[in-house]
Amino acid sequence: FNLDDLYVRFFRIAERKIAERTGQGIVCFISNFSYLSDPSFVVMRQRFLKEFDTLWFDCLNGDSRETGKLTPEGKPDPSVFSTETNREGIRVGTAIGLFCRKLVRGKAQRVRYRDFWGTTKREELAESLKATKFEKEYFAAKPSEANRFSFRPSRVAGDYLSWPKAIELAGQAPISGLQEMRHGTLMAMDQETLGRRMVAYFDESIEWDELKRSEAGPTVDGGRFVAKEARKKLMAAESYRAAQIVRYALYPLDLRWAYHSTTRPLWNEPRPALAAQHWKGNKFFVTRMFAERPNEQVPVFVTSALPDYHLLRPNAVAIPFQIRVAAASKPKRKDDGNGEFGSILEEAAPAYKAGAGKTTANLSPAARAYLAKLGIQKPDAEADTAALIWLHALAIGYAPAYLTENADGVRQDWPRIPLPASKAGLLASADLGRQVAALLDTETPVPGVTDRKLRPELKAVADLRCTGSPDFHISAGWGHGGNGGVTMPGKGKMLTRGYRPEEELEKPLLELLGKTTHDIYLNDTAYWRNVPENVWDYTIGGYQVLKKWLSYREHALLGRALTTEEVREVTHIARRLAALILLQPELDANYQRVKAATHDWQPRANH
What we know:
The structure is a single chain. Helices cover about 30% and strands about 15% of the residues. The protein has 19 helices and 24 strands. Helix 10 (about 385-395) crosses helix 13.
């Protein structure tokens, strides 16, 4: 049928039903409802609630960016505009909104919502017009300040909205992650390659045309970035410094090397305030304001490296466990609109790196009052004490029960973290978080997982096998170059099968890791044998960890074979993820204990 005819039929029935209920009203149609839950559209949603009495939303999904045109079950979810002659349809997701304003205004607004997914959504939408009990076809949404007036229904644990948001635990406002936006030229897989590139970039004897041919450093114009002029400005301000090559967290469990300078415009957003807190022994708790993808899964991360803006999708912010504040004679007030606030002195950054200034725990007044109530003193004096709340938040964020019970709340806003009512509860939870943090840190060996005698259940996980001479070029199609230098994931090559006798696990472990396993191929002759299905599918911040790692190292993109260490790193990452999954029963039990005896958070104590 013609889609326009569908809309006409829909509106005629909707107008009749609204007329039956209200006598007279206004019906509106709007498509592309990106503001159903997007935080940036809070004011618009408030305006709709003010102007209308009843709002119905039929979300037709099919968004290529948010969902990848997949249903929550991973099945195809094409655009509602897809046809036999135009299978692509449109890229953005679509929704139908029916708004009713009564002549005699009601006291409270009603918001109704339903989803349509899959390849038959058009037929299902048309069939829904025959419903005799129209209202029962929808779920009730309850927009409020607590959920940013979201038009989507929100199902969360009973006390979820009374728990503090993760950012409310911090004394310093979270800072957005760094943005390079120089086509990856300020990053590299290995330190030596990046060093050679940046030495050439700062070498005055190398003319611009020669530098551009060699692609050493950022040499491509883009937006307001004029590459040649940027190089002149940078060379006038500073010279090459090897110490500025630092560890960089681009994606979960995928560290790179980056040449970082706060001198603009080398980086698009160098975040000097964040870089000032990057020192040995400090860590960053990383989260985001809302979920971009329905399969986001874990919404938090921790790293000791400088975090990227897209370490978690869509836009990651970093909260340092500890902060150092150096005295500044002439502070400059700055707000770049991306979560970076306060006094920022670029010339003060070297002093921070040298360890100048007083070190304090990054805890809000309410968080400090909470620790004091538990009898935990001096968070500023001891790094372990300063980290307790953040490690506890990490343990909660990786508990599947927490993510399942509060999926809607976590998706729509900053994750909220219940705080244990007892000191013993906090210490126990933080200890679990410490285990999670170690597993997420690819540069920290974990006994039994990546180091020393391996745990029996992990021995056979991701074991490298070759059917011929060792060849570590990745050519199985895990990634390919897209427009603008973006790396796009590919299908790759893997064999899904049951476990072999030597890989068999006890039933409880099998239920956690998955009933099937995969052999993941680098090429036609080399593969990682036995990557359990739940390890392969493990997702953090919207990224399928192992698949994302492989996509950037396809030979056509990397230009070389993997090193022995890199091949071994895949095995280690798989075992780390397996250990995380096997820790889930303890993480769930911890969440249930905390939820049963939660500290009474008082938000006003923050102000």
